[in-house]
């Protein structure tokens, strides 16, 4: 029997096991060390390493721009839109990857876009790895169409040797009407953000959301692409009627052309503003202030010439004496401006005077005083006051515009002839508490919240009852000692004549999306009732006398063939005695049922005697309404004189709106037979009235200046207005000294 052999294998000794254990421990420690290191890298340098990794890969990512919404007028006319444009981009790295691409690409670029081939070669030589270089900006589709075919596979002109060039799309803002409604619209910056006007106020509505197209290109050139489309902005439909806006701007320009460089170098006035509003809705039909600027080129320095200059802080530069209305910009002066001063003067140009500037309203505030008296029961409207030319209040002798006195003045006549003394007596009857309460009720000192960027805050520019003294009350009654802006005044005035309904003014009536569907309707919004219907009716009656009455201060505002209502204003600016005025007229038409209100303010007109220049405002209103009322299909009700017929015939040759239809004048005498209401004058007199029989005014016996047609005061030599005897260049108000409230505002009142 054979004996089995034992296996001859190597024995796994203790020493070997020990070595294996040591090796395992070393490997384990190495893995632990690597793990700890990875954790530290992730915590401390993760983003840096991530960028390094990503930089070695190829990504294709493009931002897709949104289209900003349009701005349209009430008739659907486009006032602002965005046009698609293209930037021409050069990818040097892609172009230089093969020499055969260079010459065909350069030749196409030079031929199609008239670029400098030498400059492109130099750039390629200096930046061979560049992948983004802008060769041309803001090209239209017509400009790129032929080249686009050259680089698009499948087209007839496709050339595979043209490489390394592509187009980047974007949008630029366009304003097809140039400067039309510039104060309302505003403009956009290079990054598509709105500045001023509707562009700024509705920036979030007009702006859309950018999209993105992105993907990953791997080593095998396989592309995974994802697109998130851009969302276009919504469009806004405004209440502005482009035709009415054209009318207003035409006559503001005509005014400046007539008075520019008249008695001093500079524009026809520091500012001229006009607002037209729908009385029954608060809709702004037109709004403009001169000077204008081109929305497509808002930094055109030529538009600054003639404006009052401002310094680096935006403060108006003062003239050499108090009689100067400012320092006016000339072409030579522009070259001396610092960049900050130039920017501040641009801001002065771009702002909307109708909502940003405050001033003392003057006598256009008198209807509000009368309305307050009627509404509180302080007066009935039948009172008669005796005006001797001035009234002493609180130790101050406060004059009327007619320093000789207006005699017996009823409430209606007080508005008609703009009697300061009558207003002061009414103010005394009202009292401080009720007067300040109704100022707030009318919105004075409050923002109207109109949907435009830049509305001024007038809080603090009106009196609280605790701060007002009898002298303040006296001068406040005729528009002195408190500040307003244009939009405040016309909004409040509309409430006086529409039955007392205070509408929030607005410029936009509808928001629509890019598909044309309505997103939001903006309806007229009544905030409060300021006066009763009966008070409103009386204010209309009194304001009609201003224009239609024999002694009315606003007779020159009446357009031929129409009865309108209104009130004039002449406000002296600070410092008192500087012979600088803000003149204005605020009116509405037609007189029997006001539908459209218009307010014109001329700030420091370029004339020799500003104190008697109220006719500049009334004449502007007459011209605007003469063209606007027929366009609005408001029929004539008054007979036309031969002179008026001739004036209308000449005007219609220059009209920018459709002329009055044939036969529209057939209703001229429709209301001619309407009788005037006789006001029963109850003799509630502050002083003895004496004989009420009408007598010739004292100034009508003076000599007449043959040049101006004004009467000459034999005692002072002052020229007197032939209508109301107001002294030319006189200071109607005393200097109230260093009172902070007086020095914070801008005017005093006359007519």
Quickly describe the structure.
The protein is 31% helix and 19% strand. It is of the alpha+beta class and 751 residues long.
Q: What form results from the Cα inertia axes? A: elongated
Percentage of residues assigned to helices:
25-40%
Return the average pLDDT rounded to an integer. 86
Distance between the termini: 151 Å
Q: Uncertain runs with pLDDT below 50, 5 residues or more?
A: 54-58, 659-694, 738-749
What oligomeric state best describes the polypeptide chains here? single chain
How many beta strands in the DSSP annotation?
25
Strand % is: 15-25%
Radius of gyration: 37 Å
**Broad structural category:** alpha+beta
Number of helices: 22
Question: Describe it for me?
Answer:
By secondary structure, this protein is of the alpha+beta class. The chain has 22 helices and 25 strands. Strands 2, 3, 4, 5, 10, 18 and 19 form a seven-stranded mixed sheet that branches. It has a five-stranded antiparallel sheet with strand order 12-11-23-22-21, with helices on both faces. The protein has a three-stranded antiparallel sheet with strand order 1-8-9, with no helix packed on it. A hairpin with a 2-residue loop joins β14 and β15. α9 (242-259) packs antiparallel against α20 (614-631) and α13 runs antiparallel to α19. It is elongated, with a radius of gyration of 37 Å. It starts with 13 loop residues before the first helix and ends in an 8-residue tail after the last helix. The model is unreliable at 54-58, 659-694 and 738-749 (pLDDT under 50).
């Amino acid at each position: 029997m054979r004996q089995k052999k034992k296996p001859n294998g190597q024995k796994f000794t203790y020493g070997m096991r020990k070595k294996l254990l040591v090796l395992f421990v070393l490997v384990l420690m190495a893995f632990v060390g690597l793990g700890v290191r990875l954790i530290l890298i992730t915590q401390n340098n993760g983003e840096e390493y991530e960028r390094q990794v990503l930089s070695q890969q190829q990504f294709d990512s493009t931002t897709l721009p949104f289209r900003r919404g349009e701005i349209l007028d009430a008739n659907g006319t486009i006032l602002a839109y965005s046009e698609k444009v293209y930037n021409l981009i050069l990818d040097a790295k892609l172009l230089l990857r093969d020499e055969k691409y260079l010459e065909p690409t350069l030749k196409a670029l030079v031929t199609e876009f008239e670029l400098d081939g030498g400059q492109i070669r130099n750039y390629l030589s200096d930046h061979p790895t560049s992948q983004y270089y802008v060769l041309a900006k803001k090209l239209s589709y017509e400009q790129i169409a032929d080249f686009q075919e050259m680089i698009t596979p499948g087209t007839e002109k496709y050339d595979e040797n043209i490489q390394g060039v592509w187009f980047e799309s974007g949008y630029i803002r366009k304003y097809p009407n140039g400067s039309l409604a510039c104060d309302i619209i505003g403009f956009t910056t290079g990054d598509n953000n709105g500045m001023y006007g509707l562009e700024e106020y509705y920036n979030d509505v007009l702006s859309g959301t950018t999209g993105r197209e992105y993907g990953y290109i791997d080593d095998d050139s396989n592309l995974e692409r994802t697109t998130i489309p851009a969302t276009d902005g919504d469009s806004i439909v405004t209440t502005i009627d482009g035709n009415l806006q054209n009318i207003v701007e035409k006559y503001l320009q005509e005014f400046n052309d007539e008075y520019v460089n008249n008695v001093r170098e500079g524009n026809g006035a520091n500012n001229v503003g006009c607002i037209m509003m729908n009385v029954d809705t608060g809709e702004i039909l037109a709004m403009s202030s001169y000077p204008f600027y081109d929305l497509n080129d808002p930094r055109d320095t030529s538009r600054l010439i003639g404006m009052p200059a401002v310094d680096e802080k935006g403060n108006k530069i003062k003239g050499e004496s108090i009689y100067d209305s400012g320092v006016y910009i000339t072409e030579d002066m522009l070259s001396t401006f610092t960049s900050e001063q130039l920017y501040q003067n641009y801001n002065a140009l771009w702002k909307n005077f109708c909502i940003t500037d405050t001033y003392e309203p003057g006598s256009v505030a008198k209807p509000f005083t009368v309305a307050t008296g009627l509404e509180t029961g302080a007066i009935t409207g039948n009172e008669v006051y005796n005006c001797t030319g001035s009234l002493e209040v609180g130790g101050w002798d406060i004059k009327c515009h007619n320093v000789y006195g207006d005699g017996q003045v009823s409430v209606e006549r007080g508005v008609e002839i703009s009697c300061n003394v009558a207003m002061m007596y009414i103010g005394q009857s009202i009292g401080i508490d009720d007067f300040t309460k109704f100022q707030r009720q009318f919105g004075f000192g409050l923002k109207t919240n109109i949907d435009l960027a830049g509305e001024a805050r007038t809080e603090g520019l009106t009196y609280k009852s605790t701060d007002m003294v009898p002298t303040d009350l006296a001068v406040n009654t005729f528009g002195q000692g408190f500040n307003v802006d244009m939009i405040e005044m016309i909004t409040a005035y509309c409430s006086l004549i529409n039955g007392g309904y205070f509408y929030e003014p607005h410029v936009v009536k509808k928001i629509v999306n890019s598909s044309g569907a309505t997103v939001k309707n903006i309806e007229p919004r009544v905030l409060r009732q300021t006066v009763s219907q009966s008070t409103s009716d009386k204010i209309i009656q009194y304001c009609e006398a201003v224009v239609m009455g024999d002694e009315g201060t606003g007779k020159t505002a009446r357009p031929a063939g129409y009865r309108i209502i209104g009130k004039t204003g002449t406000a002296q600016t600070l410092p008192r005695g500087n012979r600088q005025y803000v003149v204005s007229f605020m009116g509405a038409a037609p007189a029997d049922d006001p539908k459209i209100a218009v307010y014109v303010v001329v700030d420091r007109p370029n004339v020799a005697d500003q104190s008697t220049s109220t006719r500049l405002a009334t004449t502007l209103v007459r011209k605007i309404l003469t063209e606007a009322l027929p366009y609005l299909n408001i029929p004539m009700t008054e007979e036309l004189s031969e002179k008026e017929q001739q004036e209308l015939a000449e005007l219609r040759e220059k009209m920018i709106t459709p002329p009055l239809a044939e036969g529209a004048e057939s209703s001229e005498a429709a209301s001619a037979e309407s009788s005037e209401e006789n006001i029963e004058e109850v003799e509630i007199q502050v002083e003895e009235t004496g004989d009420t029989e009408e007598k010739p005014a004292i100034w009508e016996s003076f000599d007449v200046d043959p040049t101006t047609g004004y009467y000459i005061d034999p005692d002072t030599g002052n020229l007197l207005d032939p209508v109301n005897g107001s002294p030319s260049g006189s200071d109607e108000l005393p200097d109230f000294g260093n009172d902070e409230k007086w020095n914070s505002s801008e005017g005093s009142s006359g007519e």
